[in-house]
Amino acid sequence: MSNVLELQNIEKYYGNKSNLTKAIAGISFNVEEGKFVGIMGASGSGKTTLLNCISTIDRVTAGKIIINNQDITKLKGNKLNKFRREELGFIFQDFNLLDTLTAYENIALALTIQKVNPKEIDKKVKEVAEKLGISEILNKYPYQISGGQKQREAICRAIITNPKIVLADEPTGALDSKSARQLLETFESLNQKLGATILMVTHDAFTASYADRIIFIKDGKLFNELIKGEDTRKQFFEKIIEVQTLLGGDLNDVI
Amino acid sequence: MLFKLSIRNMKKSFKDYAIYFLTLVLGVAIFYMFNSLDSQQAMLQVSQSTRDMIRLMIELLGMISVFIAIILGFLIVYANNFLINRRKREFGIYMTLGMGRRQISSIILLETILVGILSLIVGIFVGIFASQFMSILVAKLFEADMSGFTFVFSKDACIKTCIYFAVMYLAVIVFNTLTISRYKLINLLTAVRKNEKVKIKNPVISIIIFLISCGILGYAYYLVSGGISELKTANELIKPIVMGIVGTVGVFWSLSGFILRIIQAKKSIYLKGTNMFVLRQLNNKINTNIASMSIICLMLFMTISVLSGSLSIKSALDKELYKFTPVDVNLYKTAYLPDSYVSSYSGKTIYNSKEQVEDSRKPVSYTLETNGYNMNNLKDVVEFPIYALPNWTLKDSLGAYYEITKTKYPTLLYDTPESIVRISDYNKIAELYGEEQYTLNDDEYIVLCNYEQMETTRNQMLSTDSTIKINGKTYHSKYDECKEGFIFIATTEINAGIILVPDNFELKDEYTEQYFLAANYNAETEEGKQEIENTLIGSGDTEFFENIENKGINLDGASKISTRESSRGLATIIIFIAIYLGIVFLITSSAILALKQLTESSDNKQRYTILRKIGCDEKMINQALFRQILIFFMMPLALAIIHSIFGIKFVLSMLSVLASPNELLPSTIVTAIIIGMIYGLYFLATYLGSKNIIKEEN
Questions:
Q1: DSSP assignment of B508-566, as one string?
Q2: Mean pLDDT value across residues B408-412
Q3: pTM across the whole model
Q4: What is the C-alpha to C-alpha distance for residues B360 and B553, in angstroms, rounded to an integer?
């Protein structure tokens, strides 16, 4: 199975020579096609910076990020925007839906800015909405629907362009536990039935337990990695909690 | 320290200040320009009577300036309020750092003073330059000589401008201090995240309302253009005005929904690029700003009508003026003064002198000759008496229509005798004036009238039963309507009625009401004519003036030169006031529109950030923003332009001036330039400001 995403020893520094902050200090890993990967870490560990770099919102200081055989660290300006529009799908914690647009329009917008033929747009929007079970709310505005529905709308927007990889930043962060569970099941089926590659950043162990594989980050470095394999979700969840306890701090840190 | 902070703040938020600063500079410049009119070069080179007109104009402009200052004051406070609101968070941070309200107030005070001084300097500078151009306009309007150009600076206007604006800035400072003292820290810190309510309307209702509003506007347009003949009294004007306002509000209430619906149906446009987003943005913006959009549209309508209307009225009025001043001079005096009469003011009996009584039984030329006036000054003299029969009053003329007319116009003086002139006398003056001459049979009469309201009233009677019985004989009107014609020099159509009777109509001498004389000056050049005019009109220590003054003879008159000058002066005053008010209205509406666009910047920012996140590049985003602001600015302007096409037409027809498209064109171009410049400036400032706001995050 081919790699959709390859990180090769990436580094990201902030500040200047006299006061340097290493947000990412050399991370490498691969994501294979059709996998559901979680990234975990405490706040300040660099996981959001990492996601920003992958999503081309931020630029790395050193290293290579290869998505679909293309080194995105070398892309610039409009090519970068085009790449972001066409190859990546985003799901955000606070949904980032436009409050003035209906669900239909929010989803269609992802295609219209790619200058897709209007005739196809209509068909595609209805198709993807059908898959995610939000057909009946297509004419509603974000303020008229629930948090879970909003996030599913956001997923529709993210996957309608058939991206190579879907990047999710704390997707359950703004949801209650029931909606969160539903959403994660949606992710699961997205991954299993539609074969979408998902990279999800979270700090919540339960959310992470839906992934196939989890990468832990601490102080800008890889700390650990867990693979679900044949485990049940409950077993996997317990493993995650264990790692998280370790991640919380070394014994040495406690005075 | 505070000073440093203020300066740094201003530098930082320069683009935010752009609209505020622009408004201040334009306000100062306009204020200076119109208050410096008196010292402008063109004003120094016009005739005496024009100078009087200019003095009147400057007094009027001075009064209007107070009104303008109030408008600008409100605008400046409003604009300033926008700035303060945008910086709530900054003040919140100062307060958490332990800065007191007083210190924050002094930061703002310093900023206000700095911006104030800077805008005054720049504004007056702009004003001085702009007033040089204005001088050229003045010269053209007053037909003054502008061959030698000098640069003019008015100290008085400068001081006046400074004082007025200092007062306005003081109001701003007071207002700011009040605002700051009311702030709570928590509100300051969380001010940024306040979402605008999204208002959604039923599209079907939108379409219905839109069609109804268009219908209302269409009918109002019809009323003021096609249905003009029904508009007789000022009260009837209220109907189209109210309909216009209701229609405008209705259009803005429904327009965006309507357009949205139409474009949604056309998928190839709707689902293209950021069209959908721009439309929704506009829909939302307009729906939350219906009232201000409508007011701005109506203000722009006034600006356009007033500017282009007043300029074309002036050129059309000039044409009329020439028609109604065909001779150099009219002289007239009251005939057959009684020996004594009881004054209606004081109730006392007033005795006329023997000389007055004697003179009043003789024609005007007798008065001139006997009092030593050199008759060689005049040529083409035409002279005749105008009669008034006690038993032929307006009431008699109206006959059966008296009652109806009385209920319609209760204040007319119905018992006033009609002015009666013999047909042969009138034909003499008609020949001199180059007007149509008439013939009459023994039992006929003709009514001359060009004052529109009286004309229609009189025509009702003339077209049905015009028979009237005078001294046992029956007369009827030769025509079933009033005829064009006039005797007295005038600026426009104000002849309310003169009746021409056959020469054998019995008219006793004591029925003479006035003696009338029309003549041209016996001179070839303008200077020569002016010299002769001075011997007749005005005052002086010549033998003639002394004599008639001693005898108490009251000789009235009107001359071509003074009538034309005063009329032109009047038109010019109207133009100046119109331009002054028009530009201030324009500045006000553009500034409000611009601030409205910028106020909800935080919501905009959020939305554009989302666009950026889902992969829109900067070019697309800027394009979307540009289109959004452009349409937002164009919508009220477009409707205002449509309004004013009918508005100007109506004003012109109300003043019964017929302006050909050729005469309208130059004033329309001037108006378009003024509006394009000021509106365009605000548009640009808004676009750049908004671009800056939505960029901030990165």
A1: -GGGEEEEEEEEEES-SSHHHHHHHHHHHSS--SSHHHHHHHHHT---EEEEHHHHHHH
A2: 79
A3: 0.74
A4: 8
Task: Please state the domain count of chain B.
Answer: 2
CB contact under 8 A, A81 and B616: yes
Measured CA to CA, the distance from residue B405 to residue B465 in angstroms comes to: 15
Assigned domain for B116 exists: yes
Which is the CATH superfamily of the domain at A3-250?
P-loop containing nucleotide triphosphate hydrolases (3.40.50.300)
Q: What separation, in Å, do the N-terminal and C-terminal C-alpha atoms of chain B show?
A: 29
ipTM of the complex: 0.83
Choosing from B175, B194, B213, the residue where a domain stops is B194
How far from the centroid of its chain's Cα atoms is residue B592's Cα? Answer: 22
Report whether pLDDT(A251) > 60: no
Q: Take residue B629 and report the two structure tokens written for it.
A: 């602001």
Q: What is the pLDDT of residue A88?
A: 87
pLDDT level of residue B515 (50, 70, 90 thresholds):
very high
Which 3 state secondary structure label does DSSP give A5? strand
Q: At residue B273, does pLDDT exceed 60?
A: yes
pLDDT at B617 over 60: yes
Instruction: Tell me the two tokens of residue A128.
Output: 């993807």
**Boundary (domain end) residue, out of B160, B194, B228:** B194
Question: In this structure, what DSSP letter does residue B196 have?
Answer: P
Per-residue pLDDT, B698: 46
Cβ contact B616–A141 (<8 Å) = no
Amino acid (one-letter) located at A136: E
Is B53 in a helix, a strand, or coil?
Answer: helix
CA distance A205 to chain B (A): 27
Q: How many CB atoms lie within 10 A of CB B539?
A: 8
Domain containing B15 equals 1-194
In a domain, B470, yes or no: yes
Instruction: Determine, for residues A78 and B274 on separate chains, whether the beta-carbon distance falls below 8 Å.
Output: no
CB B607 within 8 A of CB A98: yes
Residue to test with chain A: of B256, B275, B276, most A Cβ within 10 A: B276
Q: What's the confidence (pLDDT) of residue B683?
A: 92
- Please check the confidence at residue B22 and state whether its pLDDT lies above 90: no
Q: How far apart are CA B205 and CA A179, in angstroms?
A: 36
pLDDT at residue B494, rounded to an integer: 80
pLDDT of residue B105: 82
Question: Any idea what DSSP says for residue B483?
Answer: B
CB-nearest to A113 from B267, B283, B615 is B615
Residue B225 lies in a domain: no
Separation of alpha carbons B286 and B632, rounded Å: 8
Nearest to B694, CA basis, from B611, B592, B627, B631? B611
